[in-house]
Amino acid sequence: MSKDWKKRTTLVHGGSRRSQYGEMSEAIFLTQGFVYDSAEAAEQRFIKSGDDEFIYARYGNPTVRMFEDRMSAITGYEDGFACASGMAAVNGALMALLKAGDHVVSARALFGSCLYVLEEVLARFGVEITLVDGTDRAAWEAAIRPDTRLVFLETMSNPTLEVVDLKFVCDLAHEHGALVVADDAMSTPIFSYSKACGADLCVFSTTKHVDGQGRMLGGIICGSRELVRGPIESYLKHTGGAMNPFTAWVHLKSLDTLDLRVRAQAASAMQIAEALEGHPKIEGVRYPQLPSHPQHKVAMAQSPSGGTVIAFDVKGGKEACFTFLNALEVLKISNNFADSKSIVTHPATTTHQRLPDEQKVTLNIGPGLVRLSVGLEDPEDLIADLMQALDRI
Fold first, then answer.
1. Strand ranges (E), the chain
2. Predicted pLDDT at 390
3. What is the DSSP letter of 243?
4. Which of 159, 175, 342, 385 could form a Cys-Cys staple with 375, CB 3.0–4.6 A?
């Protein structure tokens, strides 16, 4: 693969492997195991496998490997390990690198399942967890210690779109010898800046923009070959978190259009955010590209785009918010995001409903908060739908 290829070319051709038949479309290898020419060959394969040598689908597969190579190439990392879901990737990255007695510092503004892995699973096994305001440099400086093993954060938080100064956090963590794991689900693979800022590992839910059409669950961990093919591969291949070949094949075909889809969605998101800002029935609009966003300057220094998701607060609390949501016609109520169809979510009663009320207040997840994932519809139709629904309040 040419290292001079631009991102859109890499998305179409990166990591391609062709069989003896010379197929144009990437082949799908729906096989659990592989045949060896001899007992000696099998023995050698288990001692050390080459790049195109496979043992078992839980360990690796040619179709999955194409997807891993392509994703690591577009994010700028050396390697990747594809997982069964985004949360399998988050859990795998953290569990593979941590042990009892380790110290983790994390931004507190996280997806509910990420908080569960940190506060319930890892804490249960003796990992010390410190949660901080991810937008506060002083909080990071106070929390990261010489014995801190790992720092975890969402580069753009779900659902409130807080933006962390990633380079600052990476530099600070590395000064103390800590690894940085960045969840880039909201930032998107197209606008990811984790590698440029120094994150050791970057995690994606490929359910989101990569598939982007509401079909397949998936995730991937990208990073150095030493980490990915070392502790991460060892953990995931033994615990069963690997992606299946059919999902990898569907994802590969989705990558062909990923750049086009994400850029169109992000452009629409900006147009919609501008249309919503200042509406008398909305408390405030959160979108990193808007100058009113609290971390606008940091966000724009890191990425040219604010992504495909908008957050805003409907005045009048839950009752008014539900009236608004139920009046929408084009936008659909669901708990996913980054789909080709536009989706609205009420985080306080769905994705983050299990959080204690005081934690919701801390994270700014109020009863009027709406997470709007912008799809591929015409933005003018989406704006019209939003306005007529707001008129119903």
1. 79-83, 103-107, 128-132, 148-154, 179-183, 201-205, 219-223, 282-286, 309-314, 332-333, 343-345, 369-373
2. 98
3. P
4. 342
Per the CB < 8 A criterion, the answer to whether 209 and 261 are in contact is yes
CB-count burial class (<10 Å; 0-12, 13-18, 19+) for 326? exposed
Alpha carbon distance 78, 244 (integer Å): 22
Residue type, 88: A
Q: What is the DSSP letter of 94?
A: H
**For 263, phi and psi rounded to 5 degrees?**
-65, -40
Q: Which pLDDT score is estimated for 1?
A: 47
Does the pTM of the predicted model rise above 0.85? yes
**What pLDDT is recorded for position 49?**
84
Residue in the structure block whose two tokens are 């998936």: 218
CATH number attached to the domain at 7-254: 3.40.640.10
DSSP 8-51: HHHHHHTT----TT--SSPP----SB---SSHHHHHHHHH---T
- CA 194, CA 222: separation in Å to the nearest integer? 10
Domain boundaries along the sequence of the chain: 7-254, 260-391
> What distance, in Å, lies between the first and last C-alpha atoms of the chain?
55
Phi and psi angles of residue 126, each rounded to the nearest 5 degrees, phi first: 90, 15
Which residue, 27, 194, 182, is CA-closest to 106? 182
* Dist. CA 141–CA 147, nearest whole Å: 13
Q: What averages of pLDDT result for each successive group of 10 residues across the chain (393 residues)?
A: 80 89 91 93 89 89 96 97 98 98 96 92 97 97 98 96 98 98 97 98 98 96 98 96 96 97 98 98 97 97 96 97 98 96 96 85 92 98 98 97
Q: Which tokens belong to 329?
A: 């016609």
The tokens describing 267, both together, are 């452009």
Q: Which two structure tokens, joined as six digits, stand for 124?
A: 């249960």
